[in-house]
Hints:
mainly alpha
Amino acid sequence: MTKALFRAGHWLDASPENRIEAAKILSQPNYVGAPFEVISNSMTGTFEFEKGDKRDMPDFNVFFRYNASYPYYSDCVWFLTQMIRWGQITEQQPDSYFDEMAKKIYRPDVYMRAVEELIDDGEFTEEDFTDAFAAFEAGSYKEPTSDFIDGKTYDGTKPNEYIQSFEIGLK
Length: 171
């Protein structure tokens, strides 16, 4: 399954024509069923935020490039922080809980096994997965970032510090 997702993501990122073909498939009623125009705009990176405000955002949806599908523990931890913040997880948890859960849910070992098999099969090269090898070697956590819209610094290894930085939400 993981190898199929790599192949599909690589195909989608390979050309605008492939994304248009995917939009045609997804717009069918037995799949997403949304209008082709809506799906194709999203897939090709054209967004109309409101009437008359159309913007080109070619990398809004990325499927293979930029290590897009790598299972970073810090991404999982971020989702868990939001679940705590908005009451879907009802009890405050220690930082160790987030790390333990991320390691149960996200599986870079499975990801890298699929990478190795695709390389061994000759479908991809090591260069196609340079960032994945680096992420795996570094422990599968991203560096802290302040790139979110709220400007707050997020460090996946310090989830409670991040949760406490917000004025609203369950803490």
